[in-house]
């Protein structure tokens, strides 16, 4: 009865939050639709980009695959896992490499939106200790997690379950950390920018809802898909109450209570996600159903709607602007230049590093072609260069420049909870600019190849095209950065102004509602118009600050008045053509190659450090592999009882047993059972050359071929469900979750957010 009551309470509170959000969304949907149609009719585009934009950047590729150890909570053991990161950045964990190659179902599918990547157990324990106040293990007691190596990788989430991995070397840890961070960065950016109505309606509804609760400023958990963001919104309100209600009732030692709390939080998060997804899908379907009628009204009455909105804005402006200008002058204007400088330095260094990495990769390729020669080598290097932007390790030097971003005292003054929002946005821009530069380079080079005579012509052409692309990159980089700076300044200052003005202005807004014609009430909102007036009060100062930085040529910014005349009028037409497949076009492969063979040759963006399945070092001891009160590992029971730990034979026997056990589970033909079985993983294997063990990122220097991996029986393209982008959750319960599809080792396949 107590659990049923708790489930009922959770459903009620979730429904209440979602009900308020749905009201906000319906209001914002009409405004977003009006703005979209108005932009389509009037048009107000900025400078035309000089670089081309690739539409499908990672088709038939995987980002990374390799072995690492995962801690299995159900049986408290560390197990070797083969992890694949496909083109949509899900984390897919298999029993071992053989299970992946044989198309067996993956063990775990993880969507990493909202997660933090930790490389220290101490960092993790600090977060865990703060999650449940008053529950901290006493000194000398075993912590909630022990790691058998010095190189952990922990995925921590404030609401969902945590994942524990470790590797054997620092190089492996750095590479996996870069890969995991790229997955988080990509999955956090889960709301499609291609949607010109639903996306702005959703983000504005979230903002309006939070402001109604007196929560202004940036929000760290605005990450993932719409359903994930909404689930985070519900959990933000639900978790404190849940902690107060359930926390005191938890029994056992401190680490056991912490572990139980993490499981309860995850179970509640799954329940909330399921309820949220159902309600949000119903909401969007209803809005989409009414869209044609609304759009027809907008197009018919566009002029009257604009006139009505301008009349409303003039009345609100007369009331609000004097107060807003005083607030801007006293509390915002003196700090704009400081905020801008704090943003410009690391961001511009990151974009400069993107330019440097691109220049170095192309120059190295050109030098290798001079030394080795031939179109065949060009094809090999271009296949690697074409995915440079999606190489987490090579791009890491660009991304890490943003780690310097510090707003210091400004962060507290303007109620900025974290700079992570701005860091991530800048990093996404860096990746996009790198890919645009690479795609433009390969498009121009591809166009020139038919006209070239010999190796010397090829090298001169590469150098000439590189210089052209760098000029285009400098122009686009300046445009992108200036837009980013303006948006970041608005994100920092507007919530601060709204909070300052709320006591004197917000209560008076209701009287302006009568100025809106009833027929246009779906497209004009007093609250949105008020925010636009506040934005106008500070926009002039922000534009001026960015303009002055460009006039002074700070950080290689271009003036707005500078227009780069398009020296390649047909370039954008080239970008609309069929994507270039260097390997297929120039490697002499037959045109009618079977689709299965083409997928089997799929390349891997990042080379593997260690492809072999390893075992944890015996020296760490059995105790380090287990949590307190966990059962003895079955693997160790098979070794000879009389062999001492120092005996080489004992070490070899244990390692052989571990390797045999790890491999044996994956050879079984039986499919894993689960309430939501994961579909088979696609054919995304790598060629022999990319599967070779390598201690450094892939470089232009050729490597010896290794035997090809065994062909897989069935090949499928990655689906969203496989990588957790869109998931069907099992029936959630209020009690701590237990795996539904258990194998002999006590592990179950899990589908994660």
From TrEMBL:
SUPFAM superfamilies: PH domain-like (SSF50729). It comes from Piaya cayana (Common squirrel cuckoo). Belongs to the Niban family. Gene3D superfamilies: Pleckstrin-homology domain (PH domain)/Phosphotyrosine-binding domain (PTB). InterPro entries: Niban-like, Niban_1/2/3_dom, PH-like_dom_sf, PH_domain. PROSITE patterns: PH_DOMAIN. SMART domains: PH. Residues 653-663 have a biased composition (Basic and acidic residues). Pfam families: Niban2, PH_Niban2. Residues 695-714 have a biased composition (Low complexity). This is NIBL1 protein. Residues 582-603, 630-753 are annotated as: Disordered. Residues 61-185 form the PH domain.
